[in-house]
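User: Design a sequence. Structure:
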């Protein structure tokens, strides 16, 4: 499985042999991004893919110097953990 950041689609996506099995989508609001959805195919649950997707968006936000917010309940929980305070 491969997690990739796709700036043109405003998301991080995970693929299994070329098939999209999950994504973390955000909206670009200029000085900040809002993560709206994090989904992984239930057949791939429990492998930490959701966290990897959020972390891929986090890495891109840090690289571009933008803050992150989330309306996605999963991403809200991740961003509340230690190590993400610089994004608020």
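Assistant: Done.
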């Amino acid at each position: 499985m491969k997690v990739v950041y796709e700036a043109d689609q405003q998301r991080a996506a995970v693929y299994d042999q070329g098939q999209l099995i999950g994504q973390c989508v955000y909206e670009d609001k200029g000085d900040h991004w809002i993560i709206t959805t994090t989904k992984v195919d239930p057949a791939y649950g429990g492998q930490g893919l959701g966290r990897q997707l959020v972390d891929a968006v986090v890495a891109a936000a840090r690289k571009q110097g933008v803050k992150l917010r989330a309306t996605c309940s999963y991403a809200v929980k991740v961003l509340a953990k230690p190590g993400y305070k610089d994004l608020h």
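The longest helix spans residues 49-64. The mean pLDDT is 96.
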